[in-house]
Write the structure tokens for this entry.
Amino acid sequence: AIFPTGIAGLVVPRYSLSARIDQTHTIISGMAPPHASGFLRRQRFAPLILLAAVSAVCAALCSLATLVTFVAAPAPSRTLRKRIWHGTARGAATATWEVTGLVPDPASDVVGDVVGDGLPASEQRPGFTDREAFAEGPSVAFWQGLDPYAPEASALPTATDVTGVDAQYWLYHMGRSSFFAAQAATGVLVSEAARQLAGLGSAASSFTRGAPSEKSPSILQALMDNPTREVQARFEESAAAFRQDLGYIKSGYFKQPFDMNPKHRQFSPFYIADKASRWLEEALGTLKRSRERADTKTWVDASSDIYPEYYQHTFHYQTDGWFSSKSAEVYETSTETLFFGRQDAMQRSTLVHIARFLDRWRAEGIGAHAGLQPRLLEIACGTGRVMTFIRDNWPTMDVTASDLSPFYLEKARENNAYWERRFAPKSETLGRASFVQANSESMPFEDGSFDIIASVYLFHELPPDAQDATVAEAARVLAPGGVFVLTDSNQLGDRNYSDKNMGKFGDFAEPYYRDYIRRDLAALARKHGLEPFEKEMSSSTKSLSFRKSTKVANAASGSNSTGAAI
């Protein structure tokens, strides 16, 4: 089912892939673009119809095949399902497992050193040192004990899951995962085909089963070597993340995601075609630049006072780095494809910490403005995807989204406006949403301006000194009693089976990743006056919370320069 989309991408004229699709704007907004002649131009719309139809058919076939596979598959381990569900009871992060099963023994779940692997000693890895610093939620033990390649750890949905009360959630999310999995394979295969057609390689060198080829992307080689095992492992990982996400929803941490509503624009075949065509063009360029280890300098040549030197870099070889609307338009699709559709579920672990803080806020009257609505800041909000989930759950809260890229900030404003227009509750007065272009190392906010600060997938792209500056700023603008939530990639020791190969992601134009996975984030926070509090995990993501003490020295008695707690 994945080949037709790739073929369509090759035969559709290039301008229809790279240009904005005006007809999609017409259909979604109800208004024709100023330069449109009539409803549409037949000669430009025909390729879009072809791509939309092919994409829809591919998605339907993949979803159907996946559903049949899940229903026919053996029932997942009951022990695993109970661990996820009973481990997410709302309240303290240290809830107790009702059953044992696959939970590793804390004294024996650390991988020993491998000679010559360049890794720190096991007890020095962040995943190990976190145990002393944080109250670890049940999700941490679960993910540390899960190897997606182990068949006894199955989390795949059963017939009961897809036909019972949770059917809508499972059908949506596994269909989503199937679509992005198909899209990922399509991009890799079409890129390989394009490379061969251009005379840059041969089929024999790239598609030989068995020995890996340096010319083949690792995912393709793994799929060719053992497709059944590889596909099942990736779906195991996604299903476990979804099962945990659903557990959080049932426990009352947050609502079902608003984009499950069939009225959402992502269900439009024209919207799908637009995003798929943008992604295919981006994937072809990204994979080509990755193979060639292309220069990662962006088109921007600015003073470091405007944009730090490290920021003027095309992370993961994406087009223009953070410096174009084209990049912002395709970013969400690219990252969801990378994670086979589970990125949203991983990011929503951020909401667990926010929900717990708000419970304490109401119960204990904590914070500088007890009894009032708390104020939230998201640092490096990107396209604003997480912010829409935050606002959908706490619509009356005042929020501020900051990002250094004006292009991504504009996309965040557009996503927010879409949520307000289509999904915001009509019966409540919405909190104010502000959007600020700002460097996380030097933010234009007064001391103690926010009760909640969230950062999602920022720190692994910061050099160490920028991480220090960002945490110092977060401590300064966080109000006494407030919480800082840091959600990012797993680190060494978080999931032992992946430690040996974790650093390879740094080769994907992520120059600071290898330093990040070794950084003790608890020590970093303490250095700037924040106290480590709770830890949760979801698949490839860890989510940490830090508190700022309510005991703060006033300025007259000599508070420190960051305004951090004493």
Q: What stands out?
A: The first strand starts at residue 135 and ends at 136. The mean pLDDT is 78. Strands lie at 135-136, 375-379, 398-403, 433-437, 450-456, 478-489, 531-538, 541-547.
